[in-house]
């Protein structure tokens, strides 16, 4: 079946602009995660959704970052007033349920470049 | 707070040689431990995981890892490297109780020489 998909694959934006990154999880997966991977680093947790609600948003770096999942499937990560330090690969993952020993399935990521 | 240390940002081996990628973790609760592989321009793929039970876990592509609680380690091994194993490898830990927030190491780039 189809895996996790993310669009766009690449996004170049100017400093100060607003961007939206989209994640389509595997069908039927109720848990969804966003991670950020900076150059030379491992992925860092941003936010976790169980269904429509954000169960843990403790990894969002500041209030310029916001994510939604209004119908419990597709999620959008929104970044306001982008800064050059936001440049990274943004990864989305989903799992059948949150917690337990469920594997997180990762998408290919969106590479964001802020100029 | 949990943390992961991967010793060696770059490991180079010859084809057919043993692969050993090191991972040490810190966790205040019984951890779940994972190894992921990332090929260029692709997403992370799970190689293997330890949750409970047998401490030696076998994964895909001939990889295995052993959970050693006393050493807080979860090293990844493969007896004989193949050219197709060249990729970046990430060790990750989560809180075994909730297991939704993965904490990753910085990764180890594996190069396989012919």
Oligomer classification: heterodimer
Secondary-structure element series of chain A = EEEEEEEEEEE
Largest interface: A-B, 29 and 25 residues
For the biggest sheet of chain A, the summary is: 7 strands, mixed
Poorly predicted runs of 5 or more residues of chain B: none
C-alpha Rg of chain A (nearest Å)? 13 Å
| Helix content bin of chain A | under 10%
Specify Rg of chain B, calculated over alpha carbons.
13 Å
Poorly predicted runs of chain A are: none
What percent of residues of chain B are in strands?
A: over 45%
Query: What is the terminal separation of chain A in angstroms?
Result: 37 Å
Mean pLDDT of chain A: 94
Going by helix content, strand content and strand pairing, the class of chain B is mainly beta
Q: Which shape of chain A, going by the Cα principal axes? A: globular
H and E string of chain B = EEEEEEEEEEE
The share of residues in helices of chain B is: under 10%
Question: Tally of extended strands of chain B?
Answer: 11
Number of helical stretches of at least 4 residues of chain A: 0
Gap from first CA to last CA of chain B: 41 Å
Task: Indicate the structural class of chain A.
Answer: mainly beta
Strand content of chain A: over 45%
């Amino acid at each position: 079946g189809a895996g996790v998909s993310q669009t766009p694959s690449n996004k170049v934006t100017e400093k100060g602009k607003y961007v939206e990154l989209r994640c389509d999880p595997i069908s039927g997966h109720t848990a969804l995660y966003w991670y950020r991977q900076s150059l030379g680093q491992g992925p860092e947790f941003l936010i976790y959704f169980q269904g429509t609600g954000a169960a843990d948003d403790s990894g969002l770096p500041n209030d310029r970052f916001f994510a939604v999942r209004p119908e419990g499937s597709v999620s959008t990560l929104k970044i306001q007033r982008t800064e050059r330090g936001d440049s990274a690969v943004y990864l989305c993952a989903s799992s059948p349920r949150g917690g337990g020993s469920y594997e997180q399935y990762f998408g290919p990521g969106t590479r964001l470049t802020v100029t | 707070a949990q943390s992961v240390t991967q010793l060696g940002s770059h490991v180079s081996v010859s084809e057919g040689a043993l692969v050993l990628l090191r991972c040490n973790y810190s966790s205040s609760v019984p951890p779940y431990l994972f190894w992921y592989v990332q090929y260029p321009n692709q997403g992370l793929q799970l190689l293997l995981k330890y949750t409970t039970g047998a401490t030696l876990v076998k994964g895909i592509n001939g990889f295995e890892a052993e959970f050693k609680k006393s050493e807080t380690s979860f090293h990844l091994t493969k007896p004989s490297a193949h050219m197709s194993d060249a990729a970046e490898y990430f060790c990750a830990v989560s809180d075994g109780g909730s297991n939704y927030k993965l904490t990753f190491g910085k990764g180890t780039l594996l190069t396989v020489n012919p």
